[in-house]
Amino acid sequence: MKATGKPAQVHFAYQQIADEIEAQILRGDLNPGDQLPGEAELAGQFGVTRSTLREGLRQLESDGLVHRPSPRRLEVAVPQADQLTTRSGRAMALMKVTFRELWQVTMMTEPLAARLAAEHGTEDEINGLQSLHAETVAAEGMMKRTISLDEDFHTRLADMGRNRVLGLAREPIALLLFRGFEQIAPFAPKFYKRQIEAHSNIIAALRDRDADRAEKWARMHIEDFWRGAQIAGLEDEIALNPRALS
Amino acid sequence: MKATGKPAQVHFAYQQIADEIEAQILRGDLNPGDQLPGEAELAGQFGVTRSTLREGLRQLESDGLVHRPSPRRLEVAVPQADQLTTRSGRAMALMKVTFRELWQVTMMTEPLAARLAAEHGTEDEINGLQSLHAETVAAEGMMKRTISLDEDFHTRLADMGRNRVLGLAREPIALLLFRGFEQIAPFAPKFYKRQIEAHSNIIAALRDRDADRAEKWARMHIEDFWRGAQIAGLEDEIALNPRALS
DNA sequence: CTTGCATTTAGTGTCGGACACAAAGCCCGT
DNA sequence: ACGGGCTTTGTGTCCGACACTAAATGCAAG
User: Which residues of chain A between 30 and 59 are close to nucleic strand C, CB under 7 A?
Assistant: First the structure.
């Protein structure tokens, strides 16, 4: 039976500072884009030295709650996905998650992304996807380029669904999984073609606003990927490549 | 076209320190549990002052890569979920995501969690879930307690599936969504009973190792939740309560 | 020789002051 | 009015210092 909020250990000054500013941001007293006073002034406000205050700021900065557009300006940051993506990616890397775990989840996220994209994607976005797909076709056989384009394709597809929660959740997972293509491509060269087929079918389904078909093809696409992983014997291999993050 | 790794801006000493130690951890030169030297020694190693080094440490600490079990001991941390959960939760809060977005994703994660739990959960875990469920039944009508127990139920269910990726991805989302029960309960008192029914059916399915049935009941459970949200008119409301995080 | 307590010691958290360097603002001569 | 040089302001880094506490050590009693 734990209470709602737990202030817990707050002896340390730098921690209190970070917590206080964080609270102000969450509470809405400070809004993304707002500029904060200089370090000297802030330090004065909180009654600590600059050194101490700076430690608190570092923490907020690395939490992505504030950032410095120029060294001169310290402002409240708008949370950005890639920030979280690296964090989760690192965590999963350290946890040594397997391809199986990544795949099980991706089997849900990508079909959902495709479905939502079919429902909400605009004409322009579909056209953008189409031209991206053209690049992919042209890059057949070029592994690294294909991976990069594939990541891009799926990320854009997810963005089209107008669901930021899905975008946030799937990005780090999909990234890690798709990167595994590097290890399966040598075993299954024909997967280039199957990927191209799947992508173009997804695009066609989007054009028809056929959510079911989009979802189905996305599912088949990811299933295909799994077959490749099986051929390469990766099912329970650890999915990284720590230096892939850096 | 972006290259793979981008070291980018690294003029700042504290940043370089954080990056270097992070790299050592990711690379495996430092493993979770390893103790690091004292600040003075580290500062000497990197050729900076303690103040500067400390700023780097703060950053690593807030990244969850190192932590202090006692103020005296600084060691490489094992990445823990709740760390990421607060981060993502905060991000979604600031993004002002809607219940709809949360629900759409949860409609995928919880059924998958139930399915995997049916496949991999141990007898002990199922019993644990059962007694948790008993508490929930006893708490019928007590909103806050019910919410807390519900969160716990679903988290445990997810843990049973032996998929850490799913656990990581769903936790912050489910937390935010379920907390919305606080706003729907007043409108739909009968949902206490429906929740109890769903949970006990899920448990029964787990006992029978019936993945399909477990998945189905989980889906119905979340659908029910959505109906409640509709009754309360929350569909496109912002899902928080910033102080729910604290 | 082991155990319990007091003491030393090492290390963290915080302070205050200081300086170089860069950007933002200001001033002035043409 | 305008551009270039000067001043101001603020960050990044350094240095030295001190209180407080937890770990290590030494000492005394069993």
Answer: 47-52, 55
d(CA B195, CA B205): 15
The amino acid sitting at B170 is: R
**Rg of chain A (C-alpha set):** 22
Residues of A in contact with B92 (CB under 8 A): 164-165, 168
Q: Which residue in B has a C-alpha nearest to residue A50's C-alpha?
A: B51
Residue whose structure tokens are 């700076």: A54
CA of B169 to C1' of C24 (A): 44
Q: Do A165 and B97 touch (CB under 8 A)?
A: yes
Phi, psi dihedrals of residue B161, rounded to the nearest 5°: -80, -5
**Is nucleic acid strand D under 7 Å from B55's C-beta?**
yes
Protein-proximal positions, strand C, CB < 7 A: 10-18, 23-24
Tell me the shortest Cα–Cα distance from B103 to chain A, in angstroms.
9
For an interface test with A, give the residue of B160, B165, B178, B240 to mutate (most A CBs within 10 A): B165
Determine the residue type at A53: L
pLDDT, tens digit, for every residue of A89-143? Answer: 999 988 999 999 999 999 999 999 999 999 999 999 999 999 999 999 999 889 9
Per-residue 3-state assignment (H helix, E strand, C coil) for chain A:
CCCCCCCCCCCCHHHHHHHHHHHHHHHCCCCCCCECCCHHHHHHHHCCCHHHHHHHHHHHHHCCCEECCCCCCCEECCCCHHHHHHHHHHHHHHHCCEHHHHHHHHHHHHHHHHHHHHHHCCHHHHHHHHHHHHHHHHCCCCHHHHHHHHHHHHHHHHHHCCCHHHHHHHHHHHHHHHHCHHHHHHHCCCHHHHHHHHHHHHHHHHHCCCHHHHHHHHHHHHHHHHHHHHHCCCCCCECCCHHHCC
Tell whether pTM > 0.85.
yes
Contact, B216 CB vs strand C, < 7 Å: no
- Which of A153, A161, A167 minimizes the C-alpha distance to A222? A153
| Interface test mutation site (partner B, options A105, A120, A145, max chain B beta carbons within 10 A) | A105
Rounded CA separation B223/B225 (Å): 5
The nt closest to A40 (CA vs C1′) is: D10
Decide: CB of B67 under 7 A of nucleic strand C: no
Tens-place pLDDT, residues B79-128: 888 888 988 999 998 899 999 999 999 999 999 999 999 999 999 999 99
